[in-house]
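Quarterly update from the structural biology core.
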Amino acid sequence: MVRNLAKNTHTTAALDPPEIASYASTLRQCNRSRNLALGRTIHKKLRELGLDRVTNLSNLLIQMYGSCHCVAEASRVFATIKEPNDFSWNVMLTAYARNGHLAEARRCFDRMPRAWRGVFTFNTLMLAYARKGDLREARDLFDRMLSRNTFSWNAMISSYARGGNPREALELWRAMDIDPNSITLASALHACCELADLDEGRKIHARIKHSGLESNIILATALVNLYGRCGRVMDAQEIFHSMADSQDVVLWTAMQMALARNGRLIQASALFDRMPRRDVVSWTNMLVAHASDGDLGRAARIFGAMPERSSVTWTAMITAYAQNGRPRAAIHLFLAMDCEGFPANSVTFVTIFDACSSVADIALGRRLHAELLDLGAGQPPQIDVSLGTAIVNMYGKCGSLSEARSFFDSMPDRNAWSWNSMLAAYAQRGQTLAALDLFKLLNLHGQDPDEVSFLALFSACSHAGLLRDGHCYFVSITHDYGQRLTIDHYVCMIDLLCRAGRLAHAEELLHAMPFSPSSTAWTALLNGCEMHRDVERARGIPGRALGDDHGPYVLLSNTMLVS
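Predicted structure, tokenized:
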């Protein structure tokens, strides 16, 4: 009887004999527990009995293999179904999507009969694209849906909010035409936090009150984060105190961050001491708070007292040293981190390459660069634009322009900082023609130069005495690129005129610029006076304009002595 029923691939669960129902139940259990070994045993038994072509059992096999990450086996089972039903197509698509096989998932979606593409189908594929960071494709699927459920809206809003697109998240939140749930509200609050949008955040808070969700720990934490980010510490404290009985470490940490972020370190420390439980995140927050306040000693003591550390903790302390003028301490701690087996992330490497630049430690920089290239067992390393720029900057500041340019040329993606790092390296080492050629290449690649780009160019022209080129770039900032001239641009032009001996023109520009002349501008003119022994012009520079630094006064004295 069982064999006869097995010939009918459309046998339904209602008509299945006890044996088939028992196998179906076991496969469901394998799916939930991800018991691949038992699942394969059942599959083998079904083949022996000739039941492996029963559609209901085949669907459950696909589901089980998908849950156990065996996509190829799931696909082979699907191929044996003569007439797949809507559940067959959906479990196969889910197996592809949840295991990162997006191309296959999309082909499955496109082959599926349109009548069977329901909300679940769209949600599954949309979420897969979003998790891979392809928000454009995810949004295209979202817009094509004839009907949406709360999951559809949550998936898209959350993906925007946590994927660096908070404005799009809020636009979608405002367009939502069904009632949100706590997940929707939390995602919208996260977007408000990213944008520091207090007004929209207050509207969402009012909706939370209206919905009776004030006691929801996730929403309370999101509100504390929002108010802390927007500088509304008292509002954050009100939310926190309304959850007085909560022992949730994430909520306590959010309140701690709100206090620390707004300069209330004493209160943050007191709250930290009262926390029912501290995790590595709360410890790291206190470390970062004191480091940001310039108290490296306290930050180091917190680091030393931590019961456990993560790569983020090590990176926070390394960054604290590097950003507070202690690059050698940052390097020493990085080496200790490596010895203790904590993996460095992209931020760690960026910080250490900058530290190597500060102390001109090209040997360590080269070693770290080689390690990055070796990561992934010979596969291309995941070097993003920020990390790549830090490598270029390190080689440039250490004086190895050939290595800097070689790596720069190998970068698949570059931003303004990448180009500026290479321009500055050429300018600082007196390679003026190379800097000018690179600037032309920048324009050919369609990259818009910014203020820093032109400052590097002026520096290169100034060192080479290229007055005409420098003046052309000065004029082109507004005429060709539509940018505003800054006081730094004027100072560079004044310096260039002075080096060329055009002291009268330099002084005229100093008085004509739409800024109050800074001590740097006056010092540039004074440098020119000393260089060209123009004592009378130097005497005309008002002493109060030189500021409190002793350097300009030494220059003025030298000018008088030379005369």
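The chain is about 70% helix and 0% strand.
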